[in-house]
Amino acid sequence: MRRIVTGLLCVAACHSDAAEKPAPALAQGAVRFETARGPWVVRVEIAGDEASRARGLMYRRSLEPDRGMIFVFPASEEHTFWMHNTLIALDMIFLDEGRAVIGVVANAAPQTDTPRTVGRPSRYVVEVAAGDAAVHAVGPGTRAVFIGVPE
């Protein structure tokens, strides 16, 4: 019995370490949303490859104000997101090739596997803390300017 308990504790410890493994450092940039209330600048980590897009903001315990992540896809298509292993609620801002907002998924609940999409092709998705898109009046038609974010 002692061996079983010891084995289970080792498995739990290994699983915990894997879940807490720090993400590799990503390139940084900024997205400036031009809203009716004025510009809103979000400093973003750039998820530009498949591995960083797959990990996203998983395992983060918090997100600083005016911070987020931009997912840069190689092509426009209908992208779907989920909140698996994501510990904080998020807004997902979907942008087309011309950097116009085409839709927002607001307040995506953490640790859920519900598919989230806006039902239209997008090339970029910016994730920010839940509620930020509404506070800053970001919605369909809002234009964005990228600073240090690859095309």
Report on this structure.
This protein has helices spanning 2-20, 50-55, 132-135; strands at residues 28-35, 38-47, 67-77, 90-95, 101-108, 122-129, 143-147. With 151 residues, it is α+β, with helices and mostly antiparallel strands. Strands 5-4-6-3-2-1-7 form a seven-stranded mixed beta sheet. The longest helix is centred in the N-terminal third of the chain and has 19 residues, at 2-20.
What's the short story on this structure?
Strands 5-4-6-3-2-1-7 form a 7-stranded mixed sheet. The longest helix is centred in the N-terminal third of the chain and has 19 residues, at 2-20. The protein is α+β, with helices and mostly antiparallel strands and 151 residues long.
Characteristic key phrases:
Jelly Rolls, 7-stranded mixed sheet, disordered N terminus, alpha+beta, 151 residues
Residue stretches low in confidence (pLDDT < 50, at least 5 long) are 1-18
Shape: globular
| Distance between the amino and carboxyl termini | 58 Å
Number of domains: 1
Q: Going across the biggest sheet, name each strand in turn.
A: 5-4-6-3-2-1-7
List the secondary-structure elements in sequence, H or E: HEEHEEEEHE
What's the CATH class label?
A: Mainly Beta
CATH architecture: Sandwich
Instruction: Give the DSSP E fraction (strand runs of 2 or more residues).
Output: 35-45%
CATH homologous superfamily classification: Protein of unknown function DUF192
Helical/strand content category: alpha+beta
What name does the CATH topology carry?
Answer: Jelly Rolls
Mean pLDDT: 89
What is the count of DSSP helices, taking H or I runs of 4+ residues?
Answer: 3
- Count of beta strands: 7
Q: Which sheet architecture does the biggest sheet show?
A: 7 strands, mixed
- The radius of gyration over CA amounts to 17 Å
Q: Residue share in helices?
A: 10-25%
